[in-house]
């Protein structure tokens, strides 16, 4: 006898998914072309057809904590072939956005990050923090964030400011890690419960050591973008995505090295242009800008695919971070110190925003998709 299931539709969830770019879900008539077309869907319990019906019925509990939603890389193959124009790839992207909001703490901040009207407030928060820092430093005679400097003050002399910037960034970064940890704990637990209920795995419990092993096995697949290259419709997006990913990895390494140089070895900047870590920083910045431009170009060219605010936020963040980082350095080297200081101020706002808002934005897929792919490996589902 077939399993019975008490349907408890959540209309608010359907509205939320529609708001986040999945409004076309209503057009689906369950032909299953999308599940057949998807190049990376598993043979058993394939996606995205089952997620389409769950979304149109508002079955939130079948979608939040569903690992399959995250295995989708939004290549768009299924959307192109869907005879009804229901855009299953975009619907899954919207469900992912709703999942990030659901697992985020505090939820009010997650709602703000997904709302374009709240962007000025979100950017004003770090702006105020750094303006107050600048004013406090001025009171103790440190000439920091002076937008009309007579020389290279900002980077040459005021080490105290660099330490204070770090002291602002460290708790912000820690906050992001804690939000991710809480969200991932719930996500992995619910993903496993869902997989058990749907017969996707036979493992009763999650063995942490086995899960970590699966995670390590998954990392080369992620770095090489193997899943992206299995798609045909949006294959070129893999180049852009790869540049952005490696750009961020490079800049993360650079930040870690300079942090250790300052705090552990007390080697103060500015660092020489011939320093290899500086090269890596410049390459990371260039990769972000080129990757961001390619993402922008791809999204503008794909008129038949939905690009929601969720997507534009990520593109804007990538381009903004890369461009302000590179321009700060270029203006400084060109002797345009005032302009450089203004751009640096914008750069600090974006870096703080990156740390604080990543667990609530599309960038959170770094953690959630990685966890879902590791879980797929762990559960032995092919
Ligand atoms: S989303 Fe499109 S292809 Fe998939 S089941 Fe619905 S109508 Fe068919
Ligand atoms: S967008 Fe691509 S990966 Fe996602 S379900 Fe459709 S075909 Fe599969």
Automatic annotation (TrEMBL):
What SUPFAM superfamilies does the record tag this protein with?
alpha-helical ferredoxin, Respiratory nitrate reductase 1 gamma chain
Which GO MF terms are attached to this record?
A: 4 iron, 4 sulfur cluster binding; metal ion binding; oxidoreductase activity
Q: Where is the 4Fe-4S ferredoxin-type domain?
A: 25-85
Q: Where are the transmembrane segments?
A: 119-140, 160-184, 244-265, 277-296, 308-328, 334-357
Cellular component, GO, one term: plasma membrane
Q: Which InterPro entries match?
A: 4Fe4S_Fe-S-bd (IPR017896), 4Fe4S_Fe_S_CS (IPR017900), HdrC_iron-sulfur_subunit (IPR051460), Helical_ferredxn (IPR009051), NarG-like_sf (IPR036197)
| One Pfam family recorded for the sequence | Fer4_8
Q: Which UniProt keywords apply?
A: 4Fe-4S, Iron, Iron-sulfur, Membrane, Metal-binding, Oxidoreductase, Transmembrane, Transmembrane helix
- Under which name does UniProt file this protein? QmoC
